[in-house]
What does this fold into?
Amino acid sequence: MKFDEIQLRLLDEIADLHGVPEGAYNIRSDSQAIGRRSTEHIVITPKKDVSGIDIEILPGTKNESVHIPVVLTKSGLKEVVYNDFYVGEGADVLIVAGCGIDNCGTADSEHDGVHRFFLKKGAKVRYVEKHYGSGSGKGKRILNPVTEAYLDEGAEMTMEMVQIKGVDDTERKTIASLKENAKLVARERLMTHDDQNAVSTYEVVLEGENSSADVVSRSVARDDSFQKFDAKIIGNAPCYGHTECDSIIMDRGRILAVPGLQANHVDAALMHEAAIGKIAGEQLVKLMTLGLTAEEAEEQIINGFLR
Amino acid sequence: MLELKNLSFTVSEETGSEKEIIRGVDLVVPDGKLVVITGPNGGGKSTLAKLIMGIEKPTAGSILFNGEDVTDLSITERAKRGISFAFQQPVKFKGLKVIDLLRIASGKHLSVGDACLYLSSVGLCARDYIDRELNASLSGGELKRIEIAEILSRATKLSIFDEPEAGIDLWSFNNLIKVFEDMRRDIRDGSIIIISHQERILNVADEIVVIDGGRVKRRGSKEEILPTLLGSASVSNFCTGAGNKEDV
It folds into this structure.
């Protein structure tokens, strides 16, 4: 498998890849699978009815990874891809997704990835997803990911979602349902600039006793961009749920935070926190006393905040 | 060497009247000296320190640093010329770690080992702190000690400490005195200004300046000034001192 320069640059941005990854992988470029490898414990098969793949991770698989990066380098492409992950009992794996779009043309390019995760009892998944856009064309770079996670007893899933640059329009939807002792941790980092638009909606249902969810978003809205963070946790059992939206607003950016909690059980402990504000003047002054210019100070503060 | 010439700072109050915080201060801080500025609360000490760093702009007068007029220079330019400032209330940052601040302060990619030396010298077990975020999970005393470590790592010609003892517990206070004694010993051609009420910090001074009502009320060697202050409102013993919260 050979990559061109744009593919390599996008793969580096979204998955820190400099070539073919270790372990199982499926690399998709401009609507074609350009490389695929299954391993003894992780089997990837293409779907027959729709575009996408099934990834089966056998029970007890440990310390293995699956990379499924997607790159779009042609202007005007629009695709919807369905990827289903079946994670066997007691497995413990890293899944790296991510999509990079380079659009130098005038037509919009769009990738809508629908990822469904079925975690069996005691399975653990760390899911990392980075979105990135580049290219000087007028065509928009659009990403509308849907992530669904169904966690059986004692399963744990950590999601790290990052979108720092170049994506014009995003509508992210994450839904999850958790059985007894299951645990979901979601960390979202987002920066929008120019006239970008980003919406992120969560609906997490804590069905089982002692299940827990922790959904935290840190975001920066600059220039004329708009963000909406709409996180809802529903507690149907003795459970623990926490959502947090912490945002820095700059220039003429706008942010709407809509935290939502619904307790349907007397022992459901649910909490939300939301804070939106500009960079504190004292933070800038402090870093300037250490020799940084105001612009350098701002950059350090934002980089740290989104780390 | 730092020279303040006829320095004044006036603020407009809500009522429309003007209030003079600093009134025509003339002061020289020579190279190789540790100068403690003391005086009653509200007397203008912290404002004077902020004027020197450029955080506030004087309404009249001038500030010379090593012979250069820095009155119109920005905070950044003064920092680059070799002025450091330890805040009375350390600033918190979400996401930035202790090592990040030490690297920014020192202006180089400090190794973890070097960063640890600065933290150890302010009495922090370095390994426990280096990757901590500078946020509300750290106590006031811890933040304060990290603030002082940043100034040590900068090693500039002029270091200003605004009430370094505020918010520090007794154990750290003893350590802090040692930090200042060490700085005093290694001062060479640099100079140090400490704003403080504490007798033990006054004791480390070469010179003491008393600021009251926005003016220099008295100045002189420690031997001259300290005896006149003991027992007065402008100096306090740490154990019984007012205005010190132990929050570690």
Q: What stands out?
A: DSSP finds nine helices and ten strands in chain B.
